[in-house]
Amino acid sequence: MILPIYTYGQPVLRKQAEEITADYPDLKQLIADMYETMDKADGVGLAAPQIGLPIRLFVIDGDVLGDDYPDCKGFRKTFINPQIISSSEETVSYEEGCLSLPGISETVVRPATITIRYMDEDFQEQTETYGSFSARIVQHEYDHLEGHVFTDRVSPIRRQFLKTKLANIAKGKTACRYRTKK
What is the pLDDT of residue 174? Predict the structure, then answer.
């Protein structure tokens, strides 16, 4: 089922998400619905707060970026209760956008490499290290679980320039090609 994507201004996007257990109600269906919602919106990642749930869960499908970023080829994963346990001092700048902030893209500086511990969709613990663009996608989605959006990571001057656009999104004054909750 395709779920509405919560846009900037919804309180759930600013709330720190809570861990879940393996018996979370209808977890497998929720994960399937998140993938379907993300795919329909042409996204490469979707976090549970973006569909109104303040839980530590996100899905990623970076495969569409595989031609430009080989590390994203076949990169389709579910992350439950993730914790970034280390990140490199080396950083990389790249432009990002977000399904919850339609029409906005900004250059964001992030660590080039991260190591993350999480549970997969079968609740098996995993620890993996990501670099290149896959690391960026994971960090972007992880931020949602911490109550952050990518515009929090831009300079104060750039945030000032975005103020009107963000206010318009919060007021529902933005066109979107996918279903949203304003």
Answer: 87
| Residues 74-78: contacts with CB under 8 Å, at least 24 apart | 75/134, 75/137, 77/120, 78/31, 78/120, 78/121
141 is catalytic: yes
User: Considering its fold, how many domains does the chain have in total?
Assistant: 1
CATH code (residue 151):
3.90.45.10
Give the residue numbers spanning the domain of 168. Answer: 5-181
Q: Single out the catalytic residue among 95, 96, 141, 146.
A: 141
Give the pair of three-digit tokens for residue 143.
């931020």
- Tokens in use for 124? 């098996």
Residue 143 to residue 141: CA distance in whole angstroms: 5
Are 151 and 101 spatial neighbours (Cβ–Cβ below 8 Å)?
Answer: yes
Give the pLDDT mean for 29-48. 98
Alpha carbons 156 and 147: distance in angstroms, whole number: 18
